[in-house]
Amino acid sequence: MEQGTLADLLENIQGGHRMNAKEALALFRTRGRQVWDIAAAADEVRKERAGEAVTYVRNQNINVTNICVNACGFCGYSRKRGEEGAYFHDRAMIRKKAALARKRQVTEICTVSGLHPDFTAQSYVDVYTWIREAAPGVHLHASNPMEVAYAARKSGLSTVQVLEMMKEAGLNSMCGTAAEILVDSVRKKICRQKIPTKEWIRIITEAHGLGIPTTATIMYGHLETYGDWVRHLSILRDIQDETGGFTELVPLSFIHMNTPLYKAGLARAGATGREDLLMVAVGRLFLDNFRNIQVSWVKEGIKLAQLGLIAGANDLGGTMFEESISKGAGARNTDYLDPAEMERVARDIGRPLRRRTTLYELLPD
Ligand code: SF4
Questions:
Q1: Which phi and psi angles does 223 have, rounded to 5°?
Q2: Atom of ligand 1 at shortest range from CA of 146
Q3: Which ligand 1 atom is at minimum distance from the Cα of 191?
Q4: Measured between alpha carbons, how far is 67 from 48 in angstroms, rounded to an integer?
Q5: How far apart (Å, rounded) are the C-alpha atoms in residues 200 and 244?
Q6: Which residues contact 112 (CB under 8 A, 6 or more apart)?
Q7: Are 183 and 231 in contact (CB under 8 A)?
Q8: Using one digit for the tens of pLDDT, what is the confidence trace for 272-305?
Q9: pTM for this structure?
């Protein structure tokens, strides 16, 4: 893009212009030092919309099982029943993990799992109940539209009925995962057994309608195009206009190493650093109705995550304590990030670190 055109566009966006798809595509195609101009504009918008604090949540993952009826091409986590490395945590183990999480003073327990062949809607309710019993008062951030659709299908219920059951059992917010790329031609190649775009949108909207907020995600860096990124972000922006139910955007950079898609030569080796920064920066500028943009240290590593914090992001995600999905795909050092290290990273860019709840209320340190 011509330097003058880019400068004008960025100035207009900062002045309140709502970016269109063509403009977003042009920004994603930017190379060279213009990337820094986009990051700087996004950082300004971040400052206005979300303030100076770098936030994080003290959370713990409990992934109940990696046994899954699906076989998504980007997934290095799932196993078939009986396969080496397959696991299933029973009630006692889930309660033990939840109790440990409480002892660690987490404010959020996060649980997403494989689609176990024996699961029904009641299975999700049971898991939530066990977690609730062992860790009362902790925010339960769980499931995603794929799990809701699966539970509904297995139990002969509507997805609204399943969401109501989940809410009744203690679900406080839902993960906006299983979105991957919300373009069906891409979904057919990377996760053809997953719900189509239309169904993902419907279930997310239903959740928001029932007062269940969700995150929004995008999983990028495999075989999709920049045009697909723009289509995906447009869908998220439209939903947010309608419901206001998204708490944040969490860009998920594809971890390729152990995935069938990469091993079969069908996907590239993940996004580049330029693309990771642009996803944060253009995400910030395009999603003018989102307050929070997260950088995932699990996916990007702490050094690139830190750069994301000066390219439009305001949140570092969670401490984790236990992580297995990115690890399964080949990522390293994903289990725990000490808030002391987050503090060091935030201070290094001249910003304060603040602990938050899942819904972004600031907590005393
Ligand atoms: S991404 Fe989820 S649904 Fe797909 S194979 Fe992995 S665990 Fe199963």
A1: -130, 10
A2: 3
A3: 4
A4: 44
A5: 16
A6: 63, 142, 143, 144, 147, 175, 177, 325
A7: yes
A8: 999 999 999 999 999 999 999 999 988 899 999 9
A9: 0.96
Name the pLDDT band for 322 (thresholds 50, 70, 90): confident
- Spell out the residues 6+ positions from residue 311 whose beta carbon is closer than 8 angstroms to its own: 38, 39, 42, 43, 277, 280, 281, 284
Spacing, Cα 75 to ligand 1 middle (Å)? 6
- CA 306 – CA 7 distance, rounded (Å): 25
Q: Is 113 in the pocket of ligand 1 (CB under 6 A)?
A: no
Q: How far apart are CA 137 and CA 107, in angstroms?
A: 8
pLDDT in tens, 145-187: 999 999 999 999 999 999 999 999 999 999 999 999 999 999 9
Residue type, 312: G
The CA-CA-CA angle for residues 229, 109, 127, to 5°, reads 105
Residue 120 CA to ligand 1 centre (angstroms): 16
pLDDT at 363: 96
Name the one residue in this structure whose structure tokens are 């209320």.
361
Q: Whose CA is nearest to atom 3 of ligand 1?
A: 70
Walk across the sheet containing 315-318 and list its strands: 315-318, 54-57, 353-356
Q: How far is the CA of 263 from the centre of ligand 1 (A)?
A: 17
| Dist. CA 180 → ligand 1 center (Å) | 11
Which amino acid is residue 345, in one-letter code? V
Quick one: tokens of 163? 């969401």
